[in-house]
Here is the input.
Amino acid sequence: MFTALLLIRPWLKYLALALVVLATVFFWNRWLDARDAEAFARGDKAGAARVQAMWDAERTRQLADQAKREREARATETALRAQIDTNRRKSDAKLHAMAVERDRALDELRNRPERPTAIAGGAVPASPGADRPPEPGCTGAGLYRPDAAFLVREAASAAELREHLRACYAHADAIEAQMGGGGGKPD
Here is the structure.
């Protein structure tokens, strides 16, 4: 049989050898490509897992920071609400005291005379004590009942507005103090 191989034409031997070499190179490359693809897939999975782990760690840190900020905001809000409620109770007590004082002053005005519609001769006197000599100063003691009631209500209204303004400033000061700012009252 060996002799039969020797009898084959030499170019066929070279052709067969070339085919064997080409087949070997072809299958060798396919094996290397499969090995590289498998290595790439393993690396891709490992890289993806590493990136996913980094992302999960970052997301966990972000959620923890957010929860911490929310707890701090709730604590700040609770303290601020308590302080504002305290200020509001004080303001409401002052407003109630002012209302009681206004009502007391209006009740005292029942003793004052009504403004006359006209006096003999057609003139309305300038004050209820026209027959009395004028008093020094401007106390309002000689005002008619409707005029005095008007002024008492206006004074009470102004006092209420001042108290509301003071309460607003107290709220603003509490908020700024809680947030780290200065006072809110103008000079």
